[in-house]
Amino acid sequence: MSVPLSLYVHMPWCVRKCPYCDFNSHALRHPTDPLPESAYGGALIRDLEHALPLVWGRSVSSVFFGGGTPSLFSATAIGDILQAVRARLRLLPGAEVTLEANPGSADSARFAGYRSAGITRLSVGVQTFHDTHLRSLGRIHDSLQARRAVELALESFEHVNLDLMYGLEGQTLQEACLDLEQAIELDPGHISLYQLTIEPNTFFAHQPPRLPDDDSIWEMQQALHALLARAGYERVEVSAFARRGHACLHNVNYWEFGDYLGIGAGAHSKLTLPERGVIRQTCLRTPADYLESVGSDAHRKTSPVAAEQLPFEFMLNAMRLVEGVPVSLYAERTGRPTEDLLEGLSRARQRGLIEEVRGRMRPTPRGLDFLNDLQSIFLH
Ligand SMILES: C[S@@+](CC[C@H](N)C(=O)[O-])C[C@H]1O[C@@H](n2cnc3c(N)ncnc32)[C@H](O)[C@@H]1O
Ligand code: SF4
What we know:
The protein is an alpha/beta fold. It has two domains: 5-253, Aldolase class I (TIM Barrel), CATH 3.20.20; 308-376, Winged helix-like DNA-binding domain superfamily/Winged helix DNA-binding domain (Arc Repressor Mutant, subunit A), CATH 1.10.10.10. It is 38% helix and 24% strand. The protein contains 15 helices and 17 strands. It has helices spanning 37-51, 75-88, 108-117, 131-136, 143-156, 173-186, 203-206, 214-230, 249-255, 287-293, 310-318, 329-334, 339-350, 365-369, 371-376; strands spanning 5-11, 13-14, 26-27, 59-67, 90-101, 121-127, 159-166, 190-195, 234-237, 240-242, 259-263, 268-273, 277-283, 300-304, 325-326, 354-357, 360-363. The strands form four sheets. It has a nine-stranded mixed sheet, sandwiched between helices. Strands 12-13-14 form a three-stranded antiparallel sheet, with no helix packed on it. Helix 6 (173-186) runs parallel beside helix 8. The structure holds S-adenosylmethionine (SAM) and iron/sulfur cluster. The site of S-adenosylmethionine has 16 residues, from strand 4, strand 6 and strand 7.
């Protein structure tokens, strides 16, 4: 059984915590506080060394620096981390190496530095080009900086993603469309389009903004998807739209139930071990705890994924892909027989949520709209 392997590197700091965000991100005490770049870089490498026995002999097909705000780290720091990774893990030739950037910490020398350091793809968190909405989302940048950040990213990188959110407080259909039109005009190869969701334990969960009603959101979604299709962006996944050749290979590996090793505060891993099957791991979440205990057994919590959970875990990911996956991929990724899926597949087919075409299973348009229903059919 050969399962592709990716590496995820978590960078847990941000200048300010956005009120909607439940990622493992921690505001700097003061915006100009220095980051513990070398201490954290060293910790990441100790973390990797500790985890290496779990991935002996395997090659890595993609790397993703996510956050938090990885672009708070200097190009030198990112370069040092990547060099140390390459000295310990074999990266496949042409491996995709993504870094997430906030427009508030973007400049041309920094982006060029990332490219020289080995980053091949930049993901820019724009959210909206509307200044009032940017302010109510608590963003640290304005629309001009957002546009400039994407332009600079495109000057240095062939592969650029732009994150947009819709369904914002007081947002009209016209405003949402104008946001996307501005994004398309900049012409990045990839656009991630997220509906703003209110996550528990965020500022917005305690003081909820007045979001557009469900009918308006539905209308926005239809209009935005049509705009993307007209501009030549194919829907790869629920929220991911790409021009040909610009899909994010790292994310596709998640959705195809590939393996990933996560290093850094709060990073998650999913690994297939020859003698133990599929396991999940989580690193300690707060940067201080992580820095203190990294490299010891205490900082990674491991839990096995039972065979009965595999159909759900697999379909939870695979059915996010618009084109789905070959039915045979389940056995390839899990080492379990395809029969595990048959009863669920037949129920999902009867409810019009899945279709099978030439050996592939994929969600129907209705299945994509009611993804939770589709996925929960495979719950044990
Ligand atoms: C880790 S952040 C990206 C990088 C950087 N921290 C930034 O915000 O610019 C990943 C993306 O997830 C999306 N996101 C985060 N919280 C969300 C929420 N509650 N609802 C919808 N999208 C969300 C945003 O588009 C965000 O850019
Ligand atoms: S900058 Fe990004 S990671 Fe940081 S709090 Fe805002 S959305 Fe979350």
